TrEMBL record:
Ranges of residues in domain PucR C-terminal helix-turn-helix: 450-505
Domain CdaR GGDEF-like residue range list: 299-395
Annotated signal sequence range: none
Any Pfam family: GGDEF_2
Domain of life: Bacteria
Similarity-based family: Belongs to the CdaR family.
Listed name of the protein: PucR family transcriptional regulator
Length: 512
């Protein structure tokens, strides 16, 4: 399922902006290009495109027709979508209103959105996936090669090779390494960065020539690919020197077409990622044998890890950070999701990227200020929710300083968890027995008898150690314990009573 706001997020701000969020939870089933001369607004659940509307009055009437037809949302050109009357109508009907940048053709919008909707409907289907877009990128690379009569590669804004033209045999070594490795080699990236190429790409929309470099690097004609001011990638052609203005113009036109393909590719990848996160989230929340969730996980047993990052990051940012860190250190397919405000990972107990030992080392060595708390082993999908609950509980204890961090397994903290669960079952406002008497005495007479009793219980048979913890003389401790026995009816020889007192004291110290 994908909603209109989800579509906007997937494509990005280069083309769309949500003006009115509307209900925001209605599934988009298709895109409908409405004819202003016809009353039809598609089927319920369609995202309707407002083509050919002449002014605000037409747009308001269009909003009302689409709302009556149960559309999932509407897309209007920015000038109309920002009109006060149009916004008011969309808000009145709780209809999602999206603004479209003026430079994009409606046909391109339909092609882009349908590709993303199809991917959302079948996120794992190779037919609905991004294979078609990749094939089109290779065709565009060949078209650019025909324009400039030189080998071409298409790269994203991270210097990853997305496609290349046929006939790469006469290129320089750097280009060969780029094609083989599917990424520009680090030394070549460093060379271009030193020449300010990437700064220029990020700021400019005009093609430019990069002179020849060391180690046989030939000149490059570089064409930035942008949409709505956002830098998406670039076209690189290995040339012998400057090219004509006509070639520059044709390459710029090709870059405009390429921008839509890159937006669609990114949007489809974002939809697939969101779908994967949603399915893993469902699996971690509750196991249902009647409704199995298709999640591709590594061989079991698994562990659920609750992750925490420094507080300046919100949960979506934390999810992105952990995914980026995982991929950077070799985890090619991170199994991550956020649930109830916590980032969770599913790892194995084996070795290598994506395992608990690997993640523990990553957190300890490279993620300063982060915490990883591991739940117990899960030998099947039915065990994942309990492993998740243990991990989240343990993370909370590490954050509060009750359990040691930054890396901890439930097997190493079972005793802390046991006490914590017992304490959480008690009500601090309904404290009975001798401890309640001591608490009242401490409040009324400004004494510290509860603290004294706690130290004595924590160090049984070691009065010297208990006294040192309280910064008291041993005889003073003995005197206090005698007074405690006079104030409250205690039988400290009874192990059950000692345990009950310790749990009550822990409850008081934890607070409501």
């Amino acid at each position: 399922m994908i909603t209109a706001p989800d579509l906007v997020v997937a494509v990005g701000p280069a083309l769309f902006e949500v003006v009115v969020a509307g209900q925001g939870d209605t599934e988009v089933r298709d895109v409908f290009l409405a004819d202003p001369q016809e009353p039809a607004t598609g089927h319920p659940g369609d995202l309707v495109l407002g083509l050919g509307l002449r002014g605000p009055e037409d747009a308001v009437e269009f909003v009302e027709r689409c709302a009556a037809g149960n559309a999932s949302g509407i897309i209007l050109r920015t000038t109309l979508a920002q009109e006060t009357a149009v916004i008011a109508a969309a808000e009145r009907w709780s209809l999602t209103l999206v603004a479209l940048q003026p430079s994009v053709a409606w046909a391109h919008v339909v092609w882009l959105l349908r590709g993303v909707i199809d991917r959302a409907a079948a996120p794992d289907s190779p037919v609905a996936g991004d294979a078609g877009v990749h094939q089109e990128l290779f065709a565009l690379a060949d078209a650019a090669r025909a324009i400039v009569d030189a080998p071409v590669t298409i790269e994203d804004n991270q210097s990853r090779v997305l496609a290349y033209s046929s006939g790469q045999d006469l290129t320089d070594p750097a280009r060969v390494s780029t094609i083989v490795g599917r990424r520009v080699p680090p030394e070549v990236v460093a060379h271009f960065r030193a020449r300010g190429i990437f700064r220029r790409l990020a700021r400019s929309s005009e093609p430019f020539l990069v002179p020849a470099g060391p180690n046989g690097i030939r000149p490059r004609l570089v064409v930035p690919v942008r949409a709505g001011g956002e830098w998406l990638g670039s076209i690189w052609a290995v040339v012998d020197g400057p090219v004509s203005a006509e070639v520059m113009t044709e390459l710029s036109n090709a870059a405009s077409v390429l921008a839509l393909h890159l937006l669609r590719l990114r949007a489809q990848a974002d939809v697939a990622r969101r779908s994967s996160i949603d399915r893993l989230r469902t699996l971690l929340r509750q196991f249902s044998p009647d409704n199995p969730v298709d999640v591709r996980l590594p061989p079991q047993p698994w562990r659920v890890i609750a992750l925490s990052s420094p507080e300046e990051y919100d949960v979506p940012q934390q999810l992105d950070l952990w995914e980026s860190a995982g991929r950077r250190h070799g985890w090619s397919d991170p199994h991550l999701a956020d649930l109830d405000g916590t980032v969770l990972a599913v790892v194995t107990d084996a070795e290598g990227p994506g395992s608990w030992p690997w993640l523990a080392k990553l957190v300890a060595d490279h993620a300063k200020g982060s915490i990883a708390a591991a739940g117990g082993p899960a030998r099947g999908p039915a065990d994942l929710p309990s492993s998740r609950a243990e991990a989240v509980e343990l993370l909370g204890l590490v954050r509060r300083g009750v359990a040691p961090g930054p890396v901890l397994r439930v097997e190493e903290a079972w005793h802390v968890l046991t006490v914590h669960r017992a304490v959480m079952s008690l009500d601090v406002n309904k404290m009975d027995g001798p401890l309640a008497t001591l608490l009242r005495h401490d409040i009324e007479h400004d004494t510290g008898f509860v603290e004294t009793l706690q130290a004595w219980l924590e160090h049984p048979g070691q009065p010297q150690r208990a006294a040192r913890e309280l910064h008291l003389h041993t005889n003073t401790l003995r005197h206090r314990m005698k007074r405690i026995g006079e104030i409250a009816a205690l039988d400290l020889s009874d192990p059950v009573e000692r345990l009950a007192l310790q749990l009550q004291i822990a409850t008081v110290r934890t607070g409501p």
